[in-house]
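Following the same procedure, backbone shapes were mapped to integers, yielding the entry below.
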Amino acid sequence: MRHSAIIASILPGGTVNEREEVEAVNPVLIYDDQYNIGHICTRQQVNAGLADKVAMRWISPALERTDYTFGDLESASNRAANLLLSLGVRPGDRVFILLPRSPELYFAYLGILKIQAVACSLFSNFGEDALLDRNG
């Protein structure tokens, strides 16, 4: 099942090898007079010396707190971007995400933006008609 393999690959402890985990996506900060928000939210902050600063605080349904730094967001979103590139996703492609609200949702979203694809969120409470409408 392709979707579960993609999700497993971007989760902590997933199947992405170490080289892919730390490999940065080719940064394109400005493309067609538009800024790449994926890089601005991650790489630009790391380059500004904020790699160890908390960028996102996740409170789980069990009320457990996990902090993610800008460096964590950079690494995790690069893994997602590299995975999508390896699957043939290119700028302008639509990528649908069907994940619960979790850190991995945001990692995937930023990774999609980094490769200049179009991020489309799906949620399990969408009905069949809504899913079909979003898939074109």
